[in-house]
Specification:
This protein has about 400 residues and is of the alpha+beta class. Helix content is about 25%, strand content about 25%. Helix 3 packs antiparallel against helix 4. The longest helix is centred in the first third of the chain and has 21 residues. InterPro entries: MnmA-like, MnmA-like_C, MnmA-like_central, MnmA-like_central_sf, Rossmann-like_a/b/a_fold. Keywords: ATP-binding, Disulfide bond, Nucleotide-binding, RNA-binding, Transferase, tRNA processing, tRNA-binding.
Length: about 400
């Protein structure tokens, strides 16, 4: 009789994680469900607590006759995700807490808890993603410490596990997994890898999960929420075209590039195109597709490669053609990537994109493979700036002496 593998499944109380646990049970694994509490709802006014989600996760585990645990990462989430989020907003950036939560909480603390505390042979989540290894290969992996140098020794023989898009491209979640470690990926199973969302819903309905899993979405007023943690810093809304003051805002951190600005007395919509945190000015353009919103170049911080090393092509030539996105469901855009000595990259897009945003993550793909991501820290010039520069170059020089001499033959 073979050894029964122990898999710890992250349970959110939703359909995806519930079906993941069901599929793992059907595969013959010994499954333990764990609910993570990442946010202390008592600190947040007007937002529903996680107690209902935890109760839903417990009910599913009971239906599947599997052990249930609850673990709190409220402190870790505050120090490693939320505090960083606040610092990013104060710098004028717009962070992505979902990517950072996966990196620091689910695929670090939860992964270590599953393996070290619960003795799991592997962990599983309900993400729509797949890897280059079969499930049985997951159980044969051993822990290998990350490299201490910038790049791994090329002579070290190790076949990295690749992260690929899930079968359901509309639900693919590799974007949110683009910062996780190679070690966690090597020990993770994605039961929904080859399934579509519609089919997962069908499985859930047949299993009786739909009546259990909470489908409620909780919306929060972001401006009031963030002002609970950062002091208001009023500033001016300024027209990017003529420098005219349009109104006032409560703080640049309540606004992100591309969003519509709420200005009293304005009938036509204006959109945020830039921010200056030294003056507090937030610059606006009069149309949603204003050229001040479009750029084609950006730089990241040190890029996180899921395979731990940059692709050989990029290391050899310092340039590589691939695909880019900085929002989960945006279409993939062709780009050229340049590798810098400090591990950061420059990304040059084939076409300008609207509202590239510092603090968001530049996620790169090569075919179906998600290569990894880097935080956007610097943007190239906007199309508006380039157009103004071209206009200035095409203008004749001013004659300060107001004289008009005859041309010299």
């Amino acid at each position: 009789m073979g050894v029964v593998r122990h898999v710890v499944c992250a349970m959110s109380g939703g359909v995806d994680s519930s079906v993941s646990a069901l599929l793992l049970k059907r595969m013959g694994y010994r499954v333990t469900g764990v609910f993570m509490k990442n946010w202390d709802s008592q600190d947040e006014r007007g937002v529903c607590s996680s107690e209902r989600d935890c109760e839903d996760a417990y009910k599913v585990c009971k239906m599947l006759d599997m052990p249930f645990h609850q673990v709190s990462y409220v402190k870790e989430y505050w120090h490693e995700v939320f505090s960083n989020l606040l610092r990013e907003y104060e710098k004028g950036r717009t962070p992505n807490p979902d990517i950072m939560c996966n990196k620091h909480i689910k695929f670090k603390h939860f992964y270590q808890y599953a393996v070290n505390t619960l003795g799991a042979d592997a962990m599983a989540t309900g993400h729509y993603a797949r890897t280059s290894q079969e499930d049985e290969e997951v159980f044969q992996q051993k822990y290998v410490p990350p490299p201490r140098t910038l790049f791994r020794d090329r002579f070290e023989m190790r076949k990295p596990v690749r992260l690929y898009q899930g079968a359901d491209r509309l639900k693919d979640q590799t974007f949110f997994l683009s910062q996780i470690s190679q070690d966690a990926l090597r020990h993770t199973i994605f039961p929904l890898a080859g399934l579509t969302k519609d089919f997962v819903k069908k499985i859930a309905a047949e299993a009786g999960f739909q009546s259990v899993c909470s489908m409620t979405k909780y919306n929060r007023d972001f401006e009031n929420f963030i002002l609970e943690y950062i002091e208001p810093k009023p500033g001016n809304f300024v027209s990017v075209e003529d420098g005219k003051i349009m109104g006032q805002h409560k703080g640049w951190f309540t606004l992100t590039l591309g969003q519509r600005a709420r200005i009293g007395g304005q009938v036509d919509p204006w959109f945020v195109v830039d921010k200056d945190i030294t003056t507090g000015d937030v610059f606006l353009g009069p149309t949603t597709n204003h050229p001040a919103l479009f750029r084609d170049t950006m730089q990241t911080d040190r890029f996180h490669w899921i395979a731990e090393d940059p692709p050989v092509e990029l290391v050899r030539t310092q340039m590589m053609e691939c695909l880019f996105r900085f929002i989960n469901r945006m279409p993939l855009t062709p780009c050229t990537v340049t590798l810098n000595l400090d591990g950061s990259v420059w990304v040059m897009l084939k076409e300008p994109i609207r509202a590239l945003t510092p603090g968001q993550f530049a996620v790169l793909y090569k075919g179906d493979e998600c290569l990894g991501s880097g935080k956007i820290i610097r943007l190239g010039p906007t199309q508006f700036t380039l157009q103004k520069g071209q206009n200035c170059l095409s203008c004749p020089p001013k004659d300060t002496n107001q004289q008009h001499p005859e041309p010299v033959n």
